[in-house]
Amino acid sequence: MLLLAGLGPYEMGGQSLDGTLFARGANGGLQESYRRLLGHPLDLGRLWYGGPPRNVGDEPPGQDTTGRPLLRPYRGSVPHLSLQTVRAIVETTDVELEVFDLQDLWLDSEPRGTDFDVVGLSTTFICDAYTLQRTVQWIAKRFPAATVVLGGQYSNLKYAQILSAYPAVDYVVRGDGELAFPKLLRALADGREIDGIPNLAARNGRGLPVATPIEYVDFDALPSPVFQGAHDVVPYESMRGCPFSCKFCSFPAASPVWRHKSAERICRDWRAYAETNGATLISAMDSTFTVPRTRFRDLLAVLPDIGIPWEAYSRANCIDTPALVEGLEAAHCRGLRIGFESMNDFVLKAMDKKVTAAENERALELLADSQVDLKASFIVGYPGETPLAYEDTHRFLVDRFRGKFIMSVFTLTDETMPVLEDLPRFQLEYSHPLAWKHVGMDSQTAGALREKTMVDVRWNNDDAVLNLWQMAYSRPLVPEFDVQQNQRVEKLVERLAFVPKDLGDGVAAGERCRQALTELRALGIESLDAPPPS
Q1: pTM of this structure
Q2: Which of 23, 46, 185, 260 has CA atoms 20 to 30 A from the CA of 252?
Q3: pLDDT tens string 96-133
Q4: Is-contact 121 4, C-beta < 8 A?
């Protein structure tokens, strides 16, 4: 069997880095701008802290006085959760498995083998018809005799349309793959009929899509994926389904029965990953790790003694007291990712977010001075949102936000989003997932608002950091600094990288560059390209 799994071909917001020092292969023309601004070029890779680099052997005996680059490329590997989950399912059978990361498909690479009986495709991160068509055609061209099996969120919800539109697809595994996939693989290997296999969609004798009944695993008793080798960061799934119903998310529909692991099971799994894989950070990938409240209270009581750092997704209204934030810090929580989405209550209600702008504000106030790294996300242009309504979000970010943030323009890339039910209400029209208009604005307006907000926040809010470029580097940038100090360093580096794009190369822009370098120097970070201070 060949298993295709991994991320989709989209990079959210990547174009925002074009024309900056974060862009791949920043060109000579950009360096000419820095020469005009500073009198010398600027290479972010030559920002150092802890002293300048020295040749080996120069340091005194028994001492390491060599500085380190501030931006150190991240060399570790983070296992892909959906891939490892499917791999674990296949490994319960006698099937010989080869894995092909979807990233390699987007880069036009080829798998090592060519002779496969079954090709499996995970659609967890393939969420639109165009990408699915491209992928199925890739499979059919290379492996025309193979049985093709799809699984994952998108194919779960679109199985009837997929089986009708793509003759190359033979089966769709729905819901919990642990109940259907091993039985299907064994039946295919033995040449047996597939009758009686739950959670499976296929075609009947007339070529029409049919599906067997859905059954669910005991998720708390289900073995967690086993990761091979050492990994600093291990992803974790503590629940399936979601108790909420945000209209920009199809996750609950794909797994309508919400189930979660117990606090005891989570602790047992995390200890095992630390002991077996050397994990120094658990990344909980659930849509919200802080519910149910009873489990979360149990976790906060036991995680301090376990001592394993972790990060997770939360909802803003779960962060409601100083005592809870103190509990997060004591439990070794390193960061929370929270979907604020908007600071306008009409828009939040249209999303069915079940969180208010005031609750977003309260979560910010409670986390801003803590050692829990806040990463907030926002959506621009949700159906029904007008530029006037969006101004509430813009002003919040420019005037009051403290922490890291990311902004995305609303898209219809996921064709299973419940918001599509609101097409008449918001007069929503689209010719492409990225080209739309509704009663409030169109996609071009939303893109312009997003860019304006990011520029205004960059230069007018000292405490808000764009969370877009950091993934390529080892973090925290300065391990000896606390959360707020590292955020300040990231803010200064971001400003340095964006000066020519945002401000040009005039006198005022040069002053901004020098201010950033001066403050970095005060924090112990030097630019090796800059002349020594006089």
Answers
A1: 0.91
A2: 185
A3: 999 998 888 888 899 998 899 999 999 888 767 888 99
A4: yes
